[in-house]
Amino acid sequence: MKNSKRLLALAVAAACGAPMAAFATNGMNLEGYGPIATAMGGASMAYDNGTAAVMNNPATLGLAADGSRLDVAVGVLGPNVDATHSMGGSWSSGGDSYMMPAVGWAKKNGQLTYGVAAFAQGGMGTEYNSGGPGTAFVQMAMMGAGDNPALVAGWKERSEVGVMRILFPLAFNVNDKLTVGGSIDYVRATMDLQMAMPGSVMGDMLMNPSSTVGTITTNMALPPTIYGGYFDFSDNSDYDGKTSGDGFAAKVGFTYQVNEQLTVGGTYHTETSISDLSGNAALAVSYDDGGTGAVLPMAGTIKIKDFQWPATYGVGLSFQPNDKWMVAGDVKFINWSSVMKDFKMSFTTSGGGYMNATMYQNWDDQTVFQLGAAYKATDAFTVRFGANLGNNPIPADTLHYLFPATIENHYTAGFGYKTSAVSDINFSLQYAPEVAVTGTNATSNQGLKVTHAQTSWQLMYSHRF
After folding, report:
1. Is 178 exposed, middle or buried (0-12, 13-18, 19+ CB in 10 A)?
2. Which residues lie closer than 8 Å to 160 by C-beta, 6 or more apart?
3. Alpha carbon separation from 139 to 11, 85, 146 (Å, rounded)
4. CA atoms within a 13 Å half-sphere pointing along the CA-CB vector of 170
5. Is 94 helix (H, G, I), strand (E, B) or coil?
6. Which of 4-13, 125-134, 384-393 comes out lowest in average pLDDT?
7. What's the pTM value of the predicted model, to 2 decimals?
8. Tens digit of pLDDT for each residue in 220-261?
9. SS3 7
């Protein structure tokens, strides 16, 4: 028991200190949590899938046998993102590997199950080390005016959004058929961003009340001819972001065993309440100085205002016709429209200058179908497969190469293997075919095509004691 407690403490510390950034799948959510569920397309509402229940449906914790369970997992997401423009130019994101740790412990004692877990929830990320489309258009404007584009050659562009939860679940077996559960979640969000904004876009946001891109308000005395602006808040840490915020959320759920073969379940996850993400930042403006061009640098602080994770709810079932097969299916609704209407940044200098920028997002809600099956080939070996089918939540007129959360469908497979009477390993592999979206906003992204495909995997070791 002492060794088990020591292992739990080490695993929690490792998960809390590990990289939290991820790439977009169901919007900014992972397509599933835990390799048992993820191998089955993310379906997880109505059967025991380990401590990943804290992210899926906390009531399924009550479906386990009496005793304690420790799960330690790691996942790697491998996105492949490219951008091209009809006017010429192509860019490939170097952000192609993001680690996703998780650890969970739960103890069932009679009717009551409780525990603690830490999971990386999701996010998104890209990295254009030689500058992305925004930097290229700033340089084109400078060259067109006869100014020196090398002045902004250091404007590399990247994004990294990460969300981690530490969860405290509780499940209760009301009777032999009904189980209810819930959790209180501590949520930490981080963000790095290096983004170049062409002068034409900045000008439209500054001067046009009916802009389809967004708005900028400022008290800064800006030069009359601006080639572009550059927001920069990014660090090299694998464990945190340049800006961060904290908050809470909650989940509730249930399972009901209709008969020996059929179980149904459902869950509701509240919208988060996270503080504004804040940290040190820089803003640079490239402009025409009457010579070869110039760059005005400014240091200060930035706040990302009201960045929240959406409410999610869903229902599902599992059906076990015999002792070899189980099939499961969920339908899940993610309310992106309530939290991803606008992206708001507020930059303030030490001298009191400010620039407030709002970029319209107008994400659509997602309906996700999660379907899977498991086949018990032997007493020790189980094969799983499934599909996760959703819609792209990002409208074409707000598409951005730094935030290409456009993936639609995933096809998944995996296995479970009992290494002993008290331990096992589970693995899942997920493939998301390429989705291509071309921007339609005449001011900001018309002619910009972003493609996004993804391959990822999860591996988990479980021990019962």
Report:
1. middle
2. 21, 95, 123, 124, 125, 127, 190, 191, 192, 193, 234, 241
3. 47, 15, 10
4. 3
5. coil
6. 4-13
7. 0.92
8. 999 999 999 999 999 877 667 899 999 999 999 999 999 999
9. helix
**Hey, what are 268's tokens?**
């509701």
Query: Over the stretch 404-427, which tens digit does the pLDDT of each residue have?
Result: 999 999 999 999 999 999 999 999
**Helix and strand totals (H; E) in the chain:** 4, 22
The ranges assigned to domains in the chain are 2-68+96-372
Task: Report the candidate in 448, 413, 455 with the shortest Cα–Cα distance to residue 434.
Answer: 455
Candidates 43, 39, 60, 38; CA nearest to 51 is: 60
| Residue range 240-249, pLDDT digits in tens | 789 999 999 9
Burial class, 196, CB count within 10 angstroms (exposed 0-12 / middle 13-18 / buried 19+):
buried
Match 């739990």 to its residue by tokens.
8
| Distance from chain centroid for Cα 393 | 13
Q: 20 — alpha (psi -120 to 50), left (phi > 0) or beta?
A: alpha
Task: Give the pair of three-digit tokens for residue 432.
Answer: 């998301």
Instruction: Let me know the angle formed at the C-alpha of 352 by 348 and 357, rounded to the nearest 5 degrees.
Output: 35
Rg (CA), the chain: 24
Answer whether 278's CB lies under 8 Å from 316's CB: no
Cα-based angle 244, 337, 31 (whole degrees, multiple of 5): 70
Name the CATH topology of 2-68+96-372.
Answer: Porin (2.40.160)
